Amino acid sequence: MAKEVPDRSRGSETEKITINLGPIDLGQIDLLVEEGFYSNRTDLIRTAIRNQLSIHAPAVKDTVTRRELVLGLQHFSKQDLEAACAANQRLRIQVLGLASIAMDVSPELALAAIDSILVRGALHASPAVKAALADRIR
């Protein structure tokens, strides 16, 4: 059914986030960049985040297992959702990473096939499908 792809390359899919920093923290970051420790602010922030994720990796792994989350990428094609409907099944999508629903999936098919969506990361789907599933997305 749905294609599940483990996360092997962190840089292939990215999402933009915004953070607020005080002027002292920002100045220290700029100083480290200026001194050549990092190529730019983003490099330092990514490195810091990866270090923290590494420290907490066992807790993340335990939670993924306990909550039965798919780790990485899970893609749902129109055929996947049609097959779920034909089998009289409703999908509970739970992903840590990226969940994507094919752009040719209609809002009606998504509503018929998907019971709930929990994504810790990013959900890619057409605006119409996202709007139709809004009350099912946690």
The gist of it:
Pfam families: RHH_8. The chain has 138 residues and is an alpha/beta fold.
Looking at this protein, list some descriptive labels.
138 residues; CopG family transcriptional regulator; 2 domains; four-stranded mixed beta sheet; 23% strand; Ribbon_hlx_hlx; alpha/beta; RHH_8
Structure description:
The protein has 138 residues and is an alpha/beta fold. It folds into two domains: 23-55, no CATH class; 58-136, no CATH class. Helix content is 43%, strand content 23%. Helix 4 (78-86) packs across helix 5 (107-113). The protein starts with a strand and ends in a 6-residue tail after the last helix.
Number of domains: 2
Number of helices: 6
Element order, helices and strands? EHHHEHEHEH
Please identify the structural class as seen in this structure.
Answer: alpha/beta
Largest sheet: 4 strands, mixed
As a percent range, the share of helical residues equals 40-55%
> Average pLDDT value?
92
Low-confidence stretches: 7-11
Total DSSP E strands: 4
Distance between the termini: 22 Å
Tell me, briefly, the overall form: elongated
Using the CA coordinates, give the radius of gyration: 19 Å
Placed side by side, the strands forming the largest sheet appear as 1-2-3-4
GO biological process, one term: regulation of DNA-templated transcription
InterPro entries: Arc_rbn_hlx_hlx (IPR013321), RHH_8 (IPR041088), Ribbon_hlx_hlx (IPR010985)
Protein name: CopG family transcriptional regulator
Pfam family, one: RHH_8
